[in-house]
Amino acid sequence: MPASTQPDVMDKLVSLSKRRGFIFQSSEIYGGTGSVWDYGPLGVELKKNMKDQWWKAMVRMRDDVEGLDAAILMHPRTWEASGHVAGFTDPLIDCKTCKGRFRADKLQDARCPQKPSKKPGEAEQCQLTEPRMFNLMFKTFMGPVEENASTVYLRPETAQGIFVNFLNVQQSSRQKVPFGIAQIGKAFRNEITPGNFIFRTREFEQMEMQFFVEPGTDMEWFEFWKAERMKWHEQLGLSPGRLNYHQHEGTELAHYARAAFDIEFDFGGTLGFQEIEGIHNRGDFDLSRHQEYSGKKLEYYDAPNNKRYTPYVIETSVGADRVTLAALVNAYREETVEGEEEGRVVLGLHPSLAPIKAAVFALTKKEGMPDMAHRIASDLRAHFPVDYDETGSIGKRYRRQDEVGTPFCITVDPESVKDGTVTVRDRDTLKQERISADAVRGYLSERLPG
Ligand code: ATP
Q1: What's the mean pLDDT when you consider all of the chain?
Q2: Phi and psi at residue 39, in whole multiples of 5°?
Q3: CATH of the domain at 384
């Protein structure tokens, strides 16, 4: 993977996220829960926008993909069939000296907790154990009495809910192969080395789509989805120079995969290029295994050609949290402003992702300005998430909005009360235009994609 040329902005983002209400540490008053995070008022909007953009592109805009919302808890046999009970493991290495815990397959990227920090095993007194395999699934019990209850797992991926519902969806929606099933939902992994903010957490959300195709057409569809998914990331504003494909080869290829590519994003600093999405050709592995373990046929009947077959699956799998982090890292910039001593921090988020689309200000609390500004804000609120602010200098209010990525600020000044016009200021160009207050809604609609 190419080396990163981008600065490390992670610490700045963690602090901005807490200060402005994007992301908080979970159960912070108790000292926090290891690598679990809560989304605050702005974060929940940002992540929801991300999920809505995915749903729109993958389900609403296509007539060959259906939506699904499967349960987190599934029959325990699911995870035997999928191979997760036997094989969803990571190799764990402990250091007896510094008590550090590392993933053997990610040792290259790891740092020892001792100072000065080195790679695990590099310091003289370092005593690393042999790798031991560690299953990443969270186990719990179904039923009130623990001893008699069956063991169930919190799903480590959303995909299996799609495979077991393949025929339910196909038959109820009368879809014909090729077609896909998409869902967004929580997944849980007891990661050995979580960290880097919301990059790797133990509870996260996935946006996955399984596309069922006739065997023999699979590589064509694989290439289609590979290109399609890269386009999606670019359209949402991730800089093309920070995006990259990484092909899985040899032992990197998962047991179920016939071909796999990651889409990587350059997170900057030492994290550098990392996977944000996987595109996999899973062949007929999953449907065949579920047929074998459940004893139920999961074949497709191709009526016009009078043939039955088990479809192959092309999967696209992206983490909602991880891609939200990519959007934040990509958007963060510090700028100097001409004529001002203090610079500004801007989140140059794509307008469709911005948690607040417009902020409305009354220049002062006098001369009917707040009334007019309130009227404009409440008219806009029916159409866009809007913020109203009348405290602090106008410069400070602009900065507050820049820092959370608000694309437009609308200011009501003394002239507005007289002639019914307002100024609209653009976050990126800093240009201000004076337009009629009645035209604001149309002005924003034209510039804010749905
Ligand atoms: P890694 O090698 O980083 O552990 P993976 O190859 O196991 O990831 P997949 O199983 O392909 O990941 O999951 C698909 C997507 O889900 C990833 O591209 C990522 O965006 C997201 N994802 C996976 N694990 C986590 C996690 N622990 N925290 C946040 N997002 C995750």
Answers
A1: 93
A2: -95, 125
A3: 3.40.50.800
- At residue 178, what are phi and psi to the nearest 5 degrees? -85, 135
Count the domains in the chain.
3
Beta bridge partners of 73: 154
pLDDT at 148: 63
* Domain-located, residue 368: yes
Q: Which atom of ligand 1 is nearest to the CA of 275?
A: 18
Q: Is residue 96 part of a domain?
A: yes
CB-defined site of ligand 1, < 6 Å:
157, 189, 191, 200-201, 204, 206, 275-278, 317-319, 321-322
Instruction: Identify the weakest region by mean pLDDT among 13-22, 128-137, 144-153, 376-385.
Output: 144-153
* Domain enclosing residue 165, as ranges: 10-83+136-328
Listed range (82-96, 108-122, 395-409) with the worst mean pLDDT: 108-122
Distance, in Å, from the CA atom of 389 to the CA atom of 355, rounded to the nearest integer, reads 16
| Alpha helix segments (H runs only) across 9-40 | 10-20
User: Rounded to the nearest whole angstrom, what is the distance from the C-alpha of residue 325 to the centroid of ligand 1?
Assistant: 13
Neighbours of 236 (CB within 10 A): 20
Q: Which of 200, 201, 238, 273 to mutate to test the pocket of ligand 1 (most atoms within 8 A of CB)?
A: 200
Distance CA 201, CA 204 (A): 6
CATH of the domain at 279: 3.30.930.10
pTM value > 0.70: yes
Are 212 and 177 spatial neighbours (Cβ–Cβ below 8 Å)?
yes
| Closest residue by Cα to residue 110 from 58, 118, 196, 75 | 118
Domain membership flag for residue 378: yes
Residue 308 and residue 409 in one domain: no
Closest Cα to atom 13, ligand 1: which residue? 317
String of DSSP letters for 68-84 = ----SB--THHHHHTTH
Q: What is the pLDDT of residues 18-44, one digit of tens each?
A: 999 999 999 999 988 878 999 999 999
Q: Are residues 37 and 126 in the same domain?
A: no
Same domain flag for 70 and 160: yes
Q: pLDDT tens digits for 201-233?
A: 999 999 999 999 999 999 999 999 999 999 999
pLDDT score for 121: 74
Q: Is 316 helix (H, G, I), strand (E, B) or coil?
A: strand
